[in-house]
């Protein structure tokens, strides 16, 4: 298993989750866990995914998800689990 953390942040609009999940499904990325909140009109989602069987390399997935975010007006970031853990360690 190759865990990747995907975060999505921006103004709430219809279809954010659908667009991101559709892209992931089309590229054989499995969603292991998902959490999303909306606070005062701002959308925040964090996903833990398994990219072990992804049809593209991490760099391509990350760049294309950024493009998806640009299209729908949100910021999408991808990080390997190890890097995410190191950045958020106390």
Structure notes:
The chain is an alpha+beta fold. 37% of the residues lie in helices and 39% in strands. The protein has a four-stranded antiparallel β-sheet. Helix 1 runs antiparallel to helix 2 (58-72).
Comma- or semicolon-separated keywords:
90 residues, alpha+beta, 39% strand
Topology:
Layout: E1 3-11, H1 16-26, E2 30-39, E3 42-50, H2 58-72, E4 74-80, H3 81-87
Antiparallel strand pairs: 1-3, 1-4, 2-3
Summarize the structure.
This protein has 90 residues and is of the alpha+beta class. Helices cover 37% and strands 39% of the residues. Strand 2 and strand 3 (42-50) form a beta hairpin.
Low-confidence stretches: none
Radius of gyration: 13 Å
Shape: globular
Proportion of β residues? 35-45%
Question: What is the overall pLDDT average?
Answer: 92
Largest sheet: 4 strands, antiparallel
Distance between the termini: 25 Å
**DSSP summary: helix tally:** 3
Question: Which H/E pattern describes the elements?
Answer: EHEEHEH
Number of strands: 4
Multimeric state: single chain
The secondary structure category is alpha+beta
Approximately how much helix is present in the residues?
Answer: 25-40%
* Spatial order of the strands forming the largest sheet: 2-3-1-4
């Amino acid at each position: 298993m190759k865990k990747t953390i995907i975060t999505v942040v921006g103004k709430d609009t219809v279809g954010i989750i659908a667009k991101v999940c559709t892209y992931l499904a089309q590229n054989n990325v499995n969603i292991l866990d998902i959490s999303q909140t909306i606070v005062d009109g701002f959308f925040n989602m964090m996903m833990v995914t398994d990219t072990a069987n992804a049809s593209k390399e991490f760099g391509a997935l990350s760049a294309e998800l950024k493009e998806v975010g640009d299209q729908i007006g949100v910021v999408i970031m991808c990080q390997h689990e190890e890097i995410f853990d190191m950045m958020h360690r106390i």
